[in-house]
Amino acid sequence: MITVSENAKNHALALMKNENHPENAFIRVGVEGGGCSGLSYKLEFDTIKKEGDQEFEDKGIKIVVDRKSFLYLVGTELEYTGGLNGKGFVFNNPNANRTCGCGESFSV
Question: Which of 52, 74, 81, 108 has the fewest CB atoms within 10 Å, i.e. the most exposed one?
């Protein structure tokens, strides 16, 4: 399961509204090769589910992840931070044993 913090939920809903996404839009998260630690996170709004996608709902937010990425993201919480190091969505991933300084890539 992938969860969403209350803060991330509020920012995601605001972004979906401001960017005029349809009501059936969801957050698609994933993992791809690259970044300084080997794997990078992907996050986007989407409306089309693909074969093999895993779907979760937490706090009223639908999250979809492809089967391969789910193996790396199981147990992850999507958070939103507005701190001094920049603001944006952050993946709190219990499977990552090393992350880069910016938090956008990781390794397992």
Answer: 52
pTM (predicted TM-score): 0.83
Q: What residue ranges of the chain have pLDDT lower than 50?
A: none
Cβ neighbours, 10 Å, residue 40: 16
pLDDT of residue 46: 97
- CATH placement of domain 3-107: 2.60.300.12
DSSP assignments along 4-69, one per residue: E-HHHHHHHHHHHHHTT--TT-EEEEEEEE-STTSEEEEEEEE----TT-EEEEETTEEEEE-HHH
